[in-house]
Amino acid sequence: MDSIVILFIAGLIGLFAGMSKKPVISLFIASAGLIGAGVAAYYRGTYSSPFSSYSAYVPTQGLIIILLCAVTLLAILGGFKRYSQDDEHTGDYFALILFSLCGAVLMAQPNDLMLFFIGLEILSIPIYVLVGIDKGSSISAEAAVKYFYTGSFASAIILFGIALLYGATGSFQLIEIQSNLAIGIWQSPMAMIGSLFMLAGFTFKIGSVPFHFWGPDVYQGASNAVLMYMSTVVKIAGVYALINVFGQVFRDSYFFWIDLISLLILASMFFGYITAWKQTSFRRLIAYSSIANAGLMLFGLADIHNGNIFVFVSAYALATIALVVVNLIVNDETDSLENWEGIAWKHPLIGIALALGLFSLAGIPPMAGFFGKFTLLWAAVPHIPYTAILALIASVIGAFVYLRLLLTALKKPSVHIRIQLSLEQTLVLVLTSIASIGAIYFL
Amino acid sequence: MLILTNVVMLLVLLSQYTTKIVHDPKFTALTLLMQFGLVGVFTTQTILGFYLFWELTLLPIFLILYWFGSFEKPRALLQFFLYTLLGSLAMLLAVIGLMHATNQQTYEGLLAADVNALGNTSIILMAGFLLAFAVKIPLFPFHTWQAETYTKAPIAGTILLSAIMLKMALFGLLKWVLPIFDGVATDFWRWPIITLGIIGVVYGAVIALRQNDIKTLFAYASLSHLGLIAAAIMLNDPQTNQIAVVQIVNHSIVSIGLFLAAGIIEQRTGTRQLSELGGIAKVAPRFAFWFAVLTFISLSVPFTAGFIGEFFLIKALFSSHALTGIIASSTLILAAIYMLRAYQTPMFGPTKIAVFQDIHWSEILVFVILSIAAIYIGLAPQCLTDFVANSLTQPTH
C-alpha cells in the first residue's frame, strides 16, 4: 500500500513539475518516486486491501514490487532522451507511467477480484494514452485505437469471468472463492466457464496465443520509449496475476486447465519464434519475441507449489530493455532491421549490452535468461514433460532468431562511425549488462 | 584432460604466431574464455556444472568462427549452432530428468544412486546425453555440420574445435555417462553406438579418399578416427578406456599438426585444392619434413602414440565381436591411402608452386613438441595409462 501511495504522490508532483518544462526535474521526481516505492516495498512488503474489511490478507512478495519499480526506472531512464525532446509533456509521460505502475503493483498480487480488476484498469488506461501520445503519427493513432478496443474487450471478458465466478461462489475474495471451489463447486459449469473467461482475458493482457494479434501492430505503433515500459511491466504484472489466480484459486481444477495451458505455451512459443524469423521491423520482432516469452512465462503454472518465474521475467525484462534502448539510440526513426547492420561497432558498450542481452534471451549459460529457463523447466519437467521437450525445440528456433539479430549487429561495417551515448543511456546499458551476466552470483 | 587443454591452448596461440589473428585482442580474449569453459567442463563435480560449462564453450567458438572465419553466409555457421544447441538442450532435459529421478547432483551422489532401478527411463535419459555427445564427437548421422564448419573456420578455430572441443564429448562419455548409467542403459545403447561409430569409420575414410580440398579431407579423416574411439569407449572396459585416452591425446596431437599444416599451405599459397598444389618439398624442405612426421604419426606407424591407440582399440573391438574388429581395421588401410595422397600430391607432385616461404620458428616449435609427445607416448604409453588408470577403474556402484 505504501508503494502505491508513494508512486501516486510522485506522479502528482511530477504533473505539476512538468509545468516547469525542465525534463530533468520530472525525471528526478519520477526516479525518486520509483526508488522510494521500491524501498517501501522492501520494508513493508505486504499490503492489505483498502476496500474490504474482510480478514483476508494475502502477503505480497515485496520482491515483485521492487522488480516492477526497477524495470520502470530503467525504462524511463532509457527512454528519457525521447521523452525530453517533447519538453512540454515530459512530466505527463512520467506521471502516466507512474499511475500505470500503481495499477501494476495493485494487480500483480491480488487478494480480491474487484481490487484486481481496478488495478488492471489503472494499469491499462494510461498505456492506451501513452501508445497514442504521438498525435502527428497515423500509425501511432492506429495502434492506440486498436489497443484500446481490443483491450476494452479483454477487460470486459475478464469482468464477465469475475461475475460468473461470483455467481458460482458468492464472493470476490480469493480465499473464499478458493475454499468454495475446493469443496467441489469448481465442477459447476458456471465456475468452469468463469475461469476460462478469465484465462482468455489474461492471455490478452500478457499477449500470448490465442489473443496476441494486437501485439505486433501496437508495438510497432508505440514509440521505443513507451515500448520499453509496456513490453515488460505489463507482461510481468499480468503473468504474476495469472499465476496467482490460477495457481491459488483454481488449484483444485489443475487437471482441468493444465492441458489447455500446455497448449497455449507451445502455440505461443512456436508461433512467436517462427514468425519472428521473417520480420524486417525491429519492434515487430520484439513483439513476436514477447509473444513467445509470454508462452514461456506460463510454465510458472506447471508446478503450482514451487513454480518460480522471478528469474525468468527479470532476465526477459532486462534483455528487452537493453535491446529497445539500443534501437532507440541508433534507429529511432525508421525501425528497420536493415539499419542494425554493424551497430555493435558504433560503441563498445552497445556491442556488449547487445551480445549479453541477446544471449540472455536465447537462454545460453551463464546468462540470466538461462537460469530463468532452467528454473521454469526444472519445475515443469515432472508435471508436463512432453510440453517441456517441445518447448525446448521451440527455444532452439528462438535462439536462432536472436543469434541472427546478433550476427547482423556484429557485421563489420565498411566505415566506422562512433556515436556518443548520453549519461542515462550509458547507465541503463551498464546496469542491464551487469544484471544479465551477474545473475550467476545470486544462484 | 586438463593438461591436454592447457597445452593445446598454448600450442594454438603459438602456432598462429605469424598470423594476424593472434594480435587481435578479441581472439585472445575469446580463446581464454574458452579455456575457462573447458577447464570447468573437465573439473566440475556436479552434473549441472558440467552442462553449464559445456554450453559456455559454445559462445567463444561461435564468435571466433563468425569473426575470423570465411563464412560468406551465416547459414553454415547457424547449422553448426543448430546441431550443437539441439544436442545440448537434449542433454539439459536429461540432466533435469536425472536430477529429479535420483535427487542427486554431485558426481559421487549420482554414482551411488541406483540408476538401473529406473529401467526404461534411464535408457531415455542416457539418450539425451548421447545425442549431445553424438553431435559433438561427431557420430555418423550427426556429422553434417563438421566438414563445412572445419573448412570455413579459421585454422585456429578448427584446431580448437577438433583438438579439444570434441574431446569434451568423449570425456563426458568416459567420466559421466558410462559410470552413471552402467547397467541397463549402457547395455541398450552399446551396439547402436558401436554400429554408428564403425559406420563413421568407414564412411569418413571413404569420403576422405575422394576429397580434393585438404581441410575437408582432414575433417573426414577426423570423423573416421573419432568413430573408432567412440565405438571402443562404448565397450566400457577399464583397459580399453585407458587406451582410448591414449588415442584421444593422439588424435589431438594429430589434428593440431595436420590442420596447422593445412593452414600453412593455405596461408602461403592461397589454395587448399590438392589438384592445384605440387612440388612444395623442393622450395620448403623443412616444412616437408615436419609434415611428413605428422603424417606418419597419424598413420599410426609403430613407436608413435597412434599405433598403441589404434591397435589396442581394434583388438578390443575384435574380441567383443569379430566383424566390428575387421571392419574397423579397414581404417588402417584407408587412412594410409588418403593420408599419403594428401601428403604426396602437394609435396612431391609436379611442380606447381614455385614460391613457398619456409616455416617460422614458432611453427617448427609446435611440430617438435607434437612429435616428441607422440613418440614418447608411443614408446611409453604407460605414462598416460597409469596416470588415468586410477580414475577410470573407480569402483562404480
Tell me the total number of β-strands of chain A.
Answer: 0
Q: How many distinct folded domains of chain B?
A: 1
**Biggest contact:** A-B, 23 and 23 residues
How many helices of chain A does DSSP assign? 19
Structure at a glance:
The complex is a heterodimer of chains A (443) and B (397). Chain A contains 19 helices and no strands.
Would you mind describing this structure in some detail?
- The complex is a heterodimer of chains A (443) and B (397).
- Chain A is built from 19 helices and no strands.
- Mean pLDDT of chain A is 84; it is low at 47-60.
- Chain A has one domain.
- Chain A has helices at 2-17, 23-43, 62-78, 80-85, 90-108, 113-131, 138-169, 174-182, 189-206, 214-221, 224-230, 233-249, 254-276, 282-297, 310-330, 348-362, 368-380, 385-410, 423-438.
- The relative contact order of chain A is 0.09.
- In chain A, helix 3 (62-78) runs antiparallel to helix 11 (224-230) and helix 3 packs parallel to helix 15.
- Chain A is an all-alpha fold.
- Helices cover 72% and strands 0% of the residues of chain A.
- With 397 residues, chain B is mostly helical.
- Chain B has one domain (2-392).
- In chain B, 78% of the residues lie in helices and 0% in strands.
- Chain B contains 18 helices and no strands.
- Chain B is globular, with a radius of gyration of 20 Å.
- The two termini of chain B are 24 Å apart.
- Classes of the chains: A mainly alpha (443), B mainly alpha (397).
- At the A-B interface, helix 17 and helix 18 of A face helix 3, helix 4 and helix 5 of B.
